Amino acid sequence: MTFDLRQLTAFTTIVATGSLGRSADALHVTQPALSRTIKRLEEQVGAPLFERHSKGMQLTEIGRALLPHATLLLREAEHATEEIDAMRGLVKGTIRVGAVGSIASQVLPQAIGEVLKKWPTLHVHVIEGVWDRLTDALVKHEVDLALGMSVADTDEICAIGDCRWEDRSHVVAAIGHPLRNNPTLKLADTLTQQWAMPPQGTGPFEQMRQVFSAHGLAMPDIAVETRSITVLKSLVTRSGFLSWMPEPMYDADHQARLIDALAISGVMASRTLTAFRRRHGILPDPAVKLLEQLRLLAVAP
Q: What's the pTM?
């Protein structure tokens, strides 16, 4: 079955907007013309793709099955056009990458800087977030590389084995936090403090849970949950909260004497971080250039 990219564009736009009217406006076509385009696609597929309701358009089971393939085909076509145009000197290529805060704080900026020295016409789009957000962005083609904690491959994404890093995480607090006055500070002493963390189920939260469990302690009460690295660090520096962070993420704050690890003996955890790509499809050339630089910054296998 051969798909028309214009039909797939119409299809995915309706999915995104939920209505023919909004989609027609977005695509600068009339509603009847858009309806005919979708009708032709449905005839080609051999089944309805949408259920029409008074509140909008909803995907049928066949439509839901087509959506990820349509998204992949459109993205691959976009990458091909972008790469060819970049080679012809018409437009800039785009690197689309996502990273957890630890990598986004040190490794990724170094790699981007080196890439742009060699290819100054490239444009870079970065998403920073916890790992579940990044895997979702990778699957949805919002990014082409995701840099985060080492986890098992899935049917949709796979690790790039020669592109790995290590980091260490600690309980952190503001430089002037009262707990620093305790010369025999223990992990149990942090249980009465206010904590700010990424949500339960994220890598940092689960790593911290393992550390507390290894010391025979339940998790402290988490007063604030947020995926924002900026909010986390502001709560630590400005409001006296404790948090659990990898060293690269607060390195600049440490240099500025704002945040540092608490001196608690035996309380540290290391983890492996790696680069991931989609299992299927071609890695765009701009992403390949970034990956080559990331490999130079990776730890030896």
A: 0.65
